Amino acid sequence: MMVLFALALVASSVQAQDDTHSEEASSVHFDAAKLGAGIALGLCGVGTGLSQGPIGAAAVGMIAEDSSKFVTGLIFTALPETIVLFGFLALFLL
Fold first, then answer.
1. DSSP string covering 28-92, please?
2. What is the pLDDT of residue 42?
3. Rounded to whole angstroms, how far apart are CA atoms 79 and 74?
4. Helix (H, G, I), strand (E, B) or coil at 21
5. How far is CA 65 from the centre of its chain?
6. What's the confidence (pLDDT) of residue 74?
7. Which of the residues in the chain have pLDDT under 70?
8. Of the candidates 63, 89, 86, which has an alpha carbon nearest to the alpha carbon of residue 75?
9. Cβ atoms within 10 Å of 3's Cβ, excluding its own
10. What are the C-alpha distances in Å from 39 to residues 6, 28, 36, 44, 94?
11. pTM beyond 0.70, yes or no
């Protein structure tokens, strides 16, 4: 479904570039960039959420067995959050 949406978006931007109205074409390009940045941020958030579930469960189990490993569990739980930073980077670069 995402592939079809991306193809439709590319086709509409190519069609807009064929027109003589450069202002309209740049508007479509800017809108497509904003949409792409939003999709990048959303998918990064979904990926982070899916990865933090099993990691958090394992960290809680590890801390329940040995409470001295709290910092290690916290670090491993916080590592997937860096994926969202890449989404924010794409959001601000586009």
1. HHHHHHHHHHHHHHHHHHHHHHHHHHHHHHHHHHHHHH-GGGHHHHHHHHHTTHHHHHHHHHHHH
2. 86
3. 9
4. coil
5. 34
6. 92
7. 1-26, 94
8. 63
9. 7
10. 11, 16, 5, 8, 12
11. no
| Chain centroid to CA 28 | 22
Smallest Cα–Cα separation from 86: which of 44, 43, 47? 44
Q: DSSP code of 20? A: S
Tokens linked to 34: 């904003």
What are 92's two structure tokens? 């601000």
- Check: CB of residue 51 under 8 Å from CB of residue 45: no
d(CA 40, CA 88): 8
- Give me the residue spans of the domains in the chain: 40-94
